[in-house]
Amino acid sequence: MYLGGEKIPQQKLPLSKKTKKWREECVKAFINLSNNGTSDRRSHLKSLYDYYNGVIEDSDYNYVLKPYGKTRKNFPSKMRNYPIIKPIIDLLLGEKSKRPLNYTVTVQNSNAVTEKENAKQAAIYKNLEMHFLKSLAEQSPELFEGGQMPEEIPMPDQIAQQFDNNYVDNRAIKGQYALNYIMKEQEVYDKIQKAWFHFLVSGEVYTHRGVRSSEPFYEVLNPVDIDYDKDPDLEFVEDGDWALVRKYVHASTVIDHYHDFLSDQQVLELEDPRHAEHDSYLLYNHPSTNSDPNTFRSRLIEVVSVYWKSRKRIGFLEYLDPETQQLETMEVEDGFKMPADMKEAGGKLNYSWVNEVWKGTRVDGRFFLDVNPIANQRLSLDNPSKCKLPINGRKYSDINSSNISLVSMGIPYQLNYNIYKYRLELAIARSKDIIAQFDINMIPKKWDMDKFMYYVEGTGIAWVDYNKEGIQLSPQHQSVLDMSIKTIQQYIMLLDSIMQEWEKLSGVSRQRQGEIGAYEGKASSQQAILQSSHITEDIFRKFARMEQRDLQALVDYSKEAWLTGKQAMFVMPDGTTDFLDLDSMSHMETNYGIFVSDAGKDQQKLDQIKGLAQAMVQNGTKASMVAEMFDSDSFPQIKAKLKQAEKAAEELEAAQQQAQQQQAQQQMQMDQMKAEQETLDKDKDRQTQIEVALINAEAGQTPEVDSLNLQKMIKEFEIKEKELALKEQELSMRMQSDSDKTSVDREKNMIQQESNQISKDARQ
Questions:
Q1: Coil/strand/helix, residue 196
Q2: Residue 16 domain-assigned?
Q3: How confident is the model at residue 593 (pLDDT cuts 50, 70, 90)?
Q4: CB 509: neighbour CB atoms within 10 A?
């Protein structure tokens, strides 16, 4: 196989034929393929960082400083750098640091939709059961003594809508916590900011993702050190066939990092190349032939790590499970021997070729170390041949052309700006304003030139002695010479024009930088800022796609890192504490997907909603909830806070209405009991009158009452007394019952409020 004119060893080989020689030839072939134009590329990229840092090369200005092949000496001006690129880059760096990185983990397994629908149906069935029980309780309350049914139960269509809006797969929640943990432990936010800097300066960004010490890791690579597949249709490096990282480090660093793969002789040669069995080391960055051992130890050694996609043969074993009698499929390694009993039962073994990522390192141009398949393959659950390189990256714009960056686009403006600044300085140095010419014989007697010029410059008066011996001059014998440079203002206007053109090209206007003109209104300034943001939004969008790829890789590699599960407690950037508890099997079998929202649109929404904070407080929203909104960095978080505030307001309103209804009902009951008490009091008064009459009758004070009537009145008195006692007892019991019911209702409301708060905390 040939790539770019370089012969690549055959990759479709069984592992047994991938010998030591084959492995070394693979590494050498990709390194040789990368050597095409590598030095020029490294030099070009380094120059971009120099321009950002204000490091100028005199060769860029030879046509100005050496117009005729000769260097101008003793000129009253000097070529300097006046940075106009760096402020633009720094502003975009600051904007990126404030743009939220909102990511959501989803489940993309083929059974995810089925599981959601099953859970939805279960919730609807439970809702229908609650409706049935409530109807039954209304018809036969005796069946539900001691229990209580909810007063209001949502309808099934409401349950379905709430489920569609709020359903989150439990596996997605676990994946979200896993990514949150990785983001915190690997300081991904800070590293992404570094990657953004490389993207702005060089127009290229590269990262390395993988597993190290049973933990996912994430690091940003220097674009100067990277080369990869030249396929013109390749957008992301991880999808390519190969990539390499070329670094130059000290011998001690190499020995420390690769000590487990180096022999004692190789370590000795790296420490002091004079111990090598041949003289080839002289070809590899040898600084001198000095015999001082320290010279060799301080030399820089080339270390090239190569990653490429090879081919691997795997088997798919189809067999009949003796217990379930179901046809099963199992993946097996190349060279698997099918057991005899399985073969007799009709087992079939089919082989297929899939991709496999290999890695190899060459040190000092001669030592090949750890050339093997990488331990943690990032594979797809649905397609075992779909694998990705651990190196990822992209360029800003290299479609059918050379890649460009924001800095490279600004270089012509930076050079012209420096040149016109040089010309302006030269013009100012040459400008002498308006000068009066005097005959030298006009200098007063006994004065020297310094004294004469002192009075001219200090007082504006030229003292002369017209009576000086031998002078025959009239007082009008003088002239005026205009030595001022009229082009100074023109240079200033040219400099301003260059700045305007550069700002227009970069998309960072003066309004966006905070420079508002004296006659510019708020509306026009905001419009200018909005228009300028449209120009830079494409570079933000392209970088966001890179972020999404990297976050996806980190979640995927976590499945390889945490084969035995993972438990950890960590603190999020907002100060909240989260706990990660992953089941290894469920985590391994879940196919996660990462969604990164549009940070630009999210930021606009954030600003608009936060602008409504004052109105929300005036409408009754708690100040603490408004404060939580200001601490939120994403629109989904604020949206959840707003829904929470709305629900809390609705619950408060419902509780107030319920309390008013209970109060009105209690008032009606109190009025009824008051009326009954009044009736009871009247009955007691009549009973007292009867009792007085009976006493008088017994004393003979009421002769009209005979013995028979007396007995009758006594009997009626006893009956009435019992009726009054019963009524009084019944009234007392009712009052006590109402009091108990009120207390129970109050306790139920408090318990319900606590339950609602616990549910809110759990959802958060």
A1: helix
A2: no
A3: confident
A4: 18
User: Rounded CA gap, 225 and 302, in Å?
Assistant: 11
**Which long-range contacts does 185-188 make (Cβ < 8 Å, 24+ apart)?**
185/215, 185/570, 186/216, 186/217, 186/218, 186/554, 188/218, 188/551, 188/554
Report the pLDDT averaged over residues 638-647.
65
**CB-facing half-sphere around the CA of 727: CA atoms within 13 A:** 17
Stretch among 280-284, 563-567, 674-678 having the lowest mean pLDDT = 280-284
Total domain count for the chain? 3
Q: SS3 of 211, please?
A: strand
Residue 197 lies in a domain: no
Provide the domain limits for residue 120.
115-168
Distance between CA atoms of residues 710 and 291, nearest Å:
146
- Contact by Cβ (8 Å): 350, 316: yes
Checking if the pLDDT of 281 tops 50, the result is: no
CA distances from 119 to 110, 113, 124, 169, 586 (A): 16, 10, 9, 10, 18
Please report which helix (H) or strand (E) contains residue 317, including its range: strand 300-320
Q: Which residue reads 């510019």 in tokens? A: 520
SS (H, E, C) 106-136: EECCCCHHHHHHHHHHHHHHHHHHHHHHHHH
User: Residue 444 in contact with residue 468, Cβ under 8 Å?
Assistant: yes
User: What global pTM score does this model have?
Assistant: 0.71
Residue 2 lies in a domain: no
In a domain, 137, yes or no: yes
Q: Which of 606, 505, 451 is nearest to 98 (CA)?
A: 606
Distance CA 109, CA 590 (A): 6
Nearest of 538, 598, 545 to residue 207 by alpha carbon: 545
How many CA atoms within 13 Å lie on the side-chain side of 550?
A: 28
Task: Write down the H helix ranges in 562-634.
Answer: 584-588, 599-610, 613-618, 623-631
Q: Which of 182, 171, 173 is nearest to 561 (CA)?
A: 182
- Alpha carbon of 414 to those of 82, 334, 434, 487, 517: distances in Å? 8, 60, 34, 21, 24
Long-range contacts, 602-605 (Cβ 8 Å, 24+): 602/99, 602/100, 602/102, 602/634, 602/635, 603/98, 603/99, 603/100, 605/635, 605/638
